[in-house]
Design goal:
single chain; alpha+beta; four-stranded mixed β-sheet; 11 helices
């Protein structure tokens, strides 16, 4: 059986992946978890987490080794995000958004652009954010109005981007802008904009239900002039690059969802064993056991779907679009259900800020919304199914 199992690595994580999980969990529990409640309560950026992740090279693990990064594969990156989200979803957005923001450069950028900006990210010279959404262009990204006009050896950008994660904290931004208004999505191009570029400014932080430690702001572009070589790919390729990016990064949102669901389940299990009612541990009651069993079953199903999607992301499989959307949709729905059930397990205590499950429930909600609402994910999946793009494992 041993020789057979070595031929089928999908049966489990590799030793390297298990070690990555172990190391990240130790860092998360020692250097991130102690600050999670304060980060949420004070709605402040998780500096402690940012420093710990940078010191351990987990702030942007996906950057290839040739550009100075750790060179983590898609599954390893998922494990990093999952383990951080298990204790603090806000902090897990550091590696997740660094991948989201920089992946367009990695996918479509020139070699010079990759060396410059992926290198800066890997060295910790600044984070990367992704600027696609606008006040009137959310799910309908093709309706964006931000313009980029060629002027000699430069492009001049004007417009506003909304719901930009880690805006103001990140030094670098992948910005989607219209270069040909007559071509709708085929007239969208992608650019690297730096925080220090003249004409770049930020709105006030949004007052949010959850992920309060990750700033979400508008990004304003007022006659921002950038060198023409900061275009990512050719003119008109931006929308395709954006969609290819989301195919990969939806898997990281699934990882966040699995992580926060696991964190809530862990806490609920510990509480159920220790809590006494009617002279017995509440974990002895069948109703509680059924609730916990369903929570555990759903978390594990979401985890396996997420890992399967990560494998497709790494290989670039043709069915990645379906699996990325499915993992993100399923795992985030599970996260919302499991965190809500964890609050129920704790009863009145779960409804207070003295216990972490109410924060986890609030944080989980965003995973059903960002990087494409779960309604959009279902549209994506249906189109893939109708087109016959789905593999049988």
């Amino acid at each position: 059986m041993e020789s057979m199992q070595s031929d089928f690595p999908l049966y489990g994580l590799s030793d390297e992946h298990r070690e990555i999980r172990k190391v990240v969990r130790e860092i998360a529990e020692a250097k991130i978890a102690p600050f999670a409640a304060a980060v949420d309560e004070e709605a402040r950026y998780p500096r402690e987490a940012a420093e710990a992740l940078l010191a351990s090279d987990f702030h942007a693990p996906h950057v290839p080794e040739q550009y100075g990064g750790a060179g983590a594969d898609a599954l390893a990156t998922v494990l990093v995000i999952e383990e951080i989200a298990r204790v603090c979803v806000s902090s897990s957005l550091i590696p997740a958004v660094n991948k989201l923001g920089s992946l367009p450069v990695q996918i479509s950028g020139s070699e010079e652009l990759k060396e410059k900006y992926l290198g800066k990210l890997a060295r910790g010279e600044g984070g990367f954010s992704y600027a696609l959404s606008e006040p009137d262009a959310g799910s309908d990204a093709g309706g964006m109005t931000t313009r980029a006009v060629r002027d000699g050896d430069s492009y001049v950008l004007n417009g506003a981007k909304r719901w930009i994660t880690n805006a103001g904290e990140s030094e670098y931004y992948t910005v989607m802008a219209v270069t040909d208004p007559s071509s709708r999505t085929r007239g969208i191009s992608a650019f690297v904009v730096e925080k220090s570029d003249e004409g770049v400014s930020f709105g006030a932080p949004e007052k949010k239900l959850g992920i309060k430690g990750s700033p979400t702001k508008e990004v304003y572009l007022d006659n921002v002039r950038i060198p023409a070589d900061r275009i990512i790919g050719g003119e008109g390729t931006g929308f395709e690059t954006a969609m290819r990016t989301l195919d990969h990064t939806r898997v990281t949102i699934a990882a966040q969802a699995v992580g926060v669901a696991q964190g809530a389940l862990d806490y609920a299990l510990e509480y159920a064993v220790e809590r006494q009612q009617f002279g017995r541990s509440i974990s002895d009651f069948q109703g509680m056991q059924f609730l916990l069993a369903d929570m555990g079953m759903k978390v594990e199903a979401a985890r396996q779907m997420t890992y399967a999607a990560a494998g497709r992301s790494e290989r670039g499989d043709t069915d990645l679009t379906f699996f990325g959307a499915a993992a993100k949709c399923f795992a985030s729905d599970v996260a919302m259900q499991v965190t809500t059930d964890a609050v129920q397990v704790l009863g009145g205590y779960g409804y207070t800020r003295d216990y972490p499950v109410e924060r986890m429930m609030r944080d989980a909600k965003i995973t059903q919304i960002y990087e494409g609402t779960n309604q959009v994910q279902r549209i994506v999946m249906a189109r893939q199914l109708l087109a016959g793009v789905q593999s049988m494992i």
